[in-house]
Amino acid sequence: MSEKAMLYIMKRMEARLQDLMSAEEYQRFSREVAREAFLMDVIDMANGSFKDFALEHFDEIVKEADDAAN
C-alpha cells in the first residue's frame, strides 16, 4: 500500500474516532497511542547509551510531554 493511501486511511479513521469519542476521550486515546508508538521506536533503536537512557527514563519523558501538552 502506498504512503498516500495509508495516510488517507489514517485521516479517515481519525475523523471517525473524533465523531465517536468525546474530546477528552480522544485526547486520552491519542496520548496513549503516541506513548506506545514512541516506545516501539525506542525499542527498535540501535543499542547504545541513548536507547538505554530513553528506556530507563521513559516514564519521566512521556510524563513531561503530557505535562507540556496540558
Could you explain how this protein is built, in words?
The structure is a single chain. 86% of the residues lie in helices and 0% in strands. It has 70 residues and is an all-alpha fold. The protein has a domain of 48 residues. The radius of gyration is 15 Å and the shape is flat. The mean pLDDT is 93.
- Overall body shape: flat
Please tally the β strands and state the result.
0
How much of the polypeptide forms β-strand, as a percent range?
under 5%
| Quaternary state of the chains | single chain
Which spans have pLDDT < 50 for at least 5 consecutive residues?
none
Short description:
By secondary structure, the protein is mainly alpha-helical. It is built from four helices and no strands.
